[in-house]
Amino acid sequence: MNPYQQKRRWKYFLLAFAVVIASGSVFYTSYLVRNIARAERTRAQVWALSMKQLVNTYDNDFLTYVFAVRDSLVVPAIITDSKGEIVNWRGLDSTKTYNKLDKAELKQRKLQYDPGYFKDELAYMKKQHPPIKFTMLNEPQFVYYKDSPLLTQLKLFPYIQLSVIAIFLMVAYTAFSSSRKSEQNQVWVGLAKETAHQLGTPISSLMAWIELMKDKFNAEDDPLMAEMENDVKRLEIVADRFSKIGSKPKLDEHPVYEVVKEFVDYFKVRVSKKINFELTGNRRLTAGLNIPLFDWVLENLLKNAVNAIDGTGSIHVQIHGSKQKKQIFIDITDTGKGIPRSKFDTVFQPGYTTRQRGWGLGLSLTKRIIHNYHNGQIFVKDSELGKGTTFRIVLKTIRYDKQAKL
Fold first, then answer.
1. Which of 114, 174, 240, 290 has the most CB atoms lying inside 10 A of its own CB?
2. Histidine kinase domain spans which residues (predicted)?
């Protein structure tokens, strides 16, 4: 199992564990809410019975007990008659009244006449719970009630709790992820610069040895010596690439077609003759490029395309653009084994590879160079198993030739 798949499995495991915890919290809170809701309905029923006993009881001692029971029931409730008129209430705002008193009495009792408040409360109670019916003085009465503030808060508690936990986890994940990426970047930059430094000495020696061989064997025009020089120059470019990692490279205006063509011409003579290379597209499009780094991108993509082709095949590079979006598109299409759609994003993750000896860093590095250094995009445009894959690079153009056809 490669490291990326293992990391993804751990993510799924932690996500499943979090879902279990969240579900357990919501389930247990719902259990408490149901029990408290039943208890509050019982309180409302007892309050209704106590109101009935107040009318039918003349024993002062028993009345004291009934008053004590009634006053201990703090569930907000309203009693209406058969016509829907409010006849009593409990647990609501005591500064408001549903009986229209004169202004002097309202002022003296520090009350305000607000029938709309009780109507709104009654409508809300009707929506929350079915009424409790009882008979008093041969007249049907209805008790409507709503959840107490405690029960309301308890209903909201699991969602508030889960939201706080989710925010905490997001902040923690972002902080740890940022810290981890920073550490990885530091390691990567240090390794890259040390590699460039280590390559410097043997490259200089090779260049000197080539010059000595030319003089000793009079091989100035030998094509083999020319190819050796090209390869040593390529090593110089590789060392220069590594030295630029971690610093902001300078982007110069270059014709994209010519840059791509130069590298394709260099690359295709170093791979199997069974693979045919084709380059088409607009020759006038220009973009800000850092040649050593951009060649690295092309090298990684073309190497992957070659490795994906089993035997005979072709690689087609097409360059075109959009005037409206001011973008340049570089499509690299191979006739290889293809990539499953589920792996379109995964292939750019560090450590992901399908080869036994691969490090899984090529496409990750390619994406870093395009996104971070060239302010562009790279993605799998299309792929079909057994038929091939198309990678697309998107760059910002610097200017357009008016005669250019995109």
1. 290
2. 194-399
Range of the domain at 257: 250-399
The structure's pTM equals 0.52
Q: Count CB neighbours of 75 within 10 A.
A: 21
Q: Does residue 220 contact residue 167 with C-beta atoms inside 8 Å?
A: no
Look up residue 246 and give its amino acid: G
pLDDT tens digits for 331-356?
A: 999 999 999 998 898 888 876 776 66
Q: Select the highest-mean-pLDDT range: 222-231, 352-361, 373-382.
A: 373-382
Question: Do 256 and 373 fall within a single domain?
Answer: yes
Q: Could you give the number of structural domains in the chain?
A: 2
* Positive or negative torsion for Cα 169, 174, 180, 183: negative
Q: Which pLDDT band holds residue 380 (cuts at 50, 70, 90)?
A: very high
What is the four-CA torsion angle of 332, 337, 338, 340, rounded to 10 degrees? -160
**CA gyration radius, the chain:** 39
Pick from 157, 150, 89, 173: nearest CA to 125: 89
Q: Which residue, of 147, 169, 198, is where some domain finishes?
A: 147
- Asked if residue 283 belongs to a domain, the reply is yes
Is 264 part of any domain? yes
